[in-house]
Amino acid sequence: MSDHASLISRYLPALQKLYGADEQAYQQACKRYLQLEDLFFQVFPAASTRTDVRFYSTPGRSEILGNHTDHQKGHVICASISLDIIAAVQPTDTGVIRLHSEGYNQLIEVNLNDLAVKEAEFGKSAALIRGIVHKMQEEGLKIGGFDACVISNVPGGSGLSSSAAFEVLLVTIIDDLYNGNQLSPLQRAQISQYAENVYFNKPCGLMDQCGTSFGGLIALDFADSKQIKVKQLANPLTSSNYRLLITKTGGSHADLTADYAAIPAEMKEVAHCFGKNYLAEVPAADFWRRLGQLREQVSDRALLRAFHFFQEEERVAQAISALERQDLPAFFAVVRASGLSSALLLQNIYSNHAPLQQGVSLALALSEKVLQGQGACRVHGGGFAGTIQAYVPTELVEKYRETLEQVLGQGSVYDLQIRPYGSINLANLL
């Protein structure tokens, strides 16, 4: 442990607020931050003579309801979760951002005098840093260099938005260091999305970044992409006997690009039949009335996916109402209906290109066997491979974990909390 391990001690009240709902989670968090601080002074030994190190935390996110509706300007419910990316940061006057991620040998360096898009950086973390700095400068915000070390327990490729959390973390750091936290959570999310779209070269919506930026349980209305409407909801699990569990089912997203791209493309085919670009712009009554004609213009699968969209929009409204009433049975009923719709209509439980690989289907079948009608389970996020989500009674958590990990592997089940804080400097919790 470094001689500067005591730096984090001043933030213990903040850690208690952020992680203290569970004593074991709090103790683990304290160890993580001590590890982070030690790593920072190992990577940047010259910093050992200074104490202006700041600590940040940005959560992952879980999609609660609204499966594949955001890209059609629909409605979504999502939540920030207790898994997070944490960072130790020290501002510098070098005009360079240097960042080290635990588990990676290479130190990322981005010169702030060179913020052009670089094709060689597509898909790399340096592209996100460069894109975020460029966008913030373009928006008239101050920028500057810093040294940072980050540690993450948000598993990559899990549908919990590890990449969005990293992006929002970077925006938060620059906003905090050089702009006195001027940006709203939505602005932080939009800057992050820009970097991923333009510099990282990956099309993405805004849900993931919003989920990590705002904190808590939120309802999102994507009708106006420039001004997303956000509604904070009460967390119904706080005083309940249920836990939110996410399970990694195995499989890779690497070969699923065509599957993911087909969903918005086919939904838009239906919207184009009405002269619109997005299904949210099409009145549901018009869709149902013209269904027979539409079958002559688009594929049956496109129609089924449009079915899912219009009915999922209704389910999001029903879920919001149930959450506001703190009516968990009604909420679980909507979640189950949404999961069934994703399986039968949206058809994102497994890939038609690899029909023998059905990890998500297997995990859902195992979940149903354990739950026996209690709580709810459903595919999580984009689907085809990846994760499932389940609301499990506390007394069944260990049985659920044992049953699924026996088939899907040790450590595949994550027991999560919905955390009330989004991306934050720990000092703001003191």
Give the gist of this structure.
With 430 residues, the chain is an alpha+beta fold. It has 13 helices and twelve strands.
Describe the protein's architecture and organization.
The strands form two sheets. Strands 1, 2, 3, 4, 5, 6, 7 and 12 form an eight-stranded mixed beta sheet that branches. Strands 9-10-8-11 form a four-stranded antiparallel beta sheet. The protein is globular. 42% of the residues lie in helices and 19% in strands. By secondary structure, the chain is an alpha+beta fold. Strand 6 and strand 7 form a beta hairpin. It has two domains: 5-233 and 419-429, Ribosomal Protein S5, domain 2; 242-416, 2-Layer Sandwich (Alpha-Beta Plaits). The protein starts with 11 loop residues before the first helix and ends in a 5-residue tail after the last strand. Residues 52-91 form the Galactokinase N-terminal domain. It comes from Amygdalobacter indicium. This is Galactokinase family protein. It holds the Pfam family GalKase_gal_bdg.
Keywords:
430 residues, alpha+beta, Ribosomal Protein S5, domain 2, Alpha-Beta Plaits, eight-stranded mixed beta sheet, four-stranded antiparallel beta sheet, 13 helices, 42% helix, 19% strand, globular, disordered N terminus, ATP-binding, GHMP_kinase_N_dom, nucleotide-binding
Topology (SSEs and partners):
Elements: H1 12-19, H2 23-43, E1 54-65, E2 75-91, E3 96-101, E4 108-111, H3 125-138, E5 146-152, H4 162-179, H5 185-199, H6 207-214, E6 217-221, E7 229-233, E8 242-248, H7 257-272, H8 284-289, H9 291-294, H10 300-324, H11 328-346, H12 359-371, E9 376-380, E10 387-393, H13 397-408, E11 413-416, E12 424-425
Parallel strand pairs: 3-5
Antiparallel strand pairs: 1-2, 1-12, 2-5, 2-6, 3-4, 6-7, 8-10, 8-11, 9-10
Helix pairs in contact: 1-2, 3-4, 3-5, 4-5, 4-6, 5-6, 7-10, 10-11, 12-13
